[in-house]
Each structure stands twice: as C-alpha cells, then as structure tokens.
Structure prediction request, 155 residues.
Amino acid sequence: MQERKEPSLRVRALRHLARREYTRQELDRLLAPHAESEDEVTQILDDFSQRGWLSETRAAEQMVHARRGRYGPARIRRDLEAKGVSAELVSSTVATLKEGELESARAVWRRKFREPATNAAERAKQGRFLMGRGFSSEVITKLLRALSRGETGDE
Prediction:
C-alpha cells in the first residue's frame, strides 16, 4: 500500500482560497498547525497578498454580503473584528451599512414576526430580538414605534 503524501502548505492555502475568501488571520490560523515554522506561513501569506489572491477587502465584502440580510451593523462589525479585519476597513464597511439599517431591520422583523406587537411584553421581545441581531436601539425604537402607529414602516 502506498503512503499518502500530505499536501504542501501552499496547496492547502490555495484549496482554502478556492472555496471562499479568507482574511489573513483566518488563513494563518488554518495553516499554522501544518507548518514547520511561523516564517513559512508568513512567507506564503505575503506572496498571496502580493499576487492579489489574499485580500482582506474582498473577504470583508463577502462577509458583509452574506450577513447583510440577517444581521445589523453592530453584529457585522463584531464578526469582521473577530475574523481579523483591520479597524479602518471595519469602520468604512460598517458606515455603508448604517445607511440601510432601518430597511434591513424592517426586513428581518418582517421575516420573524409579521404582526406588530400588541402589548409592551411583545414589543420588548421584538426589540430584544432585533438588538441581538445587531441593530441599534435608535433604529429599533423608530421601527417599533412606526409599527405600533399602524404604519407599515415603508415611509
């Protein structure tokens, strides 16, 4: 029986990047257990960045695109920071999300609840749900007030 050879670090990195975009920190974490040294991983990541194969901007855009319909700016900010995206890129990305936050909150609310709250307990439950999804308290208040007045929120 022939012994199966482990793929090189470079091949492992390319396989990961072929599936989706990764931040440098994520790819470093994935490759580190298979590397002989930290320098080996750094060298590969530097090469990939230089060639444009590893892009923090593309990774952030992909994460935002995937999460935008389900989460608010605060949650997306936390997810980006956890993935190792730079503070400047996080700030600029989240700033663009703030513009459509009310519409996003309305869409998330509509999928979950469909009917406006009829009492304070239900309103609080809906508010907590939206807060957990990363929407700001100002947007949640604005949305729930509009709904309680009988507005569809499509003002």
